[in-house]
Amino acid sequence: MSIPACPAPDVLAARQRLVLDHFRDEVRHAWDDVLATFPHPRYELIPQLVVHDGDEAVRGYYAETRTAFPDQDHEIIALRHSADAVIVEFWLMGTHRGYLGKVPPTGGRFRVRMTAYFVFDESETLVCERIYFDTLTMVRQLLGGLDMKRPANWLLAARCVRGLLSMSSGKPDSALTGSAHR
């Protein structure tokens, strides 16, 4: 197997600008600007084995996550380049103020370390954002703030667990379950 060459510095700089603009526009909720960074938007959420593919699906993903975490923000830890991707390690943070699928808001804050691969094709078009993170860390932070000495929180905790289970019971996207390199 041959190792692909890393692109020229000007190509790497252009990729990095695009990725940083993408991050900035997500925080601003400037969805049209975010979607302009790739002609066919695609997010692959590896922990859930879920793909949001196409404009409508990605806008739905934005709506759901920003309803749940309207103050969602990030803090970049490191940015690296590879032959076909910009790899960003970052902290994702937010406060659970709205429903996330069937999970009711807990009011808890989370801060989770993540890695996103912004994958580019041969024509230097962004084709995918592939995200890796520890779901359990996020869930623990969101539920960990509930005072379980208060009976009122027992029902909320039970509803959260039921909602989380319903989110994880879907069929994994077949595009993410194979071993083919993409």
From TrEMBL:
PANTHER family: ESTER CYCLASE, POLYKETIDE CYCLASE SNOAL-LIKE DOMAIN. Pfam families: SnoaL. InterPro entries: Cyclase_SnoaL-like, NTF2-like_dom_sf. This is Ester cyclase.
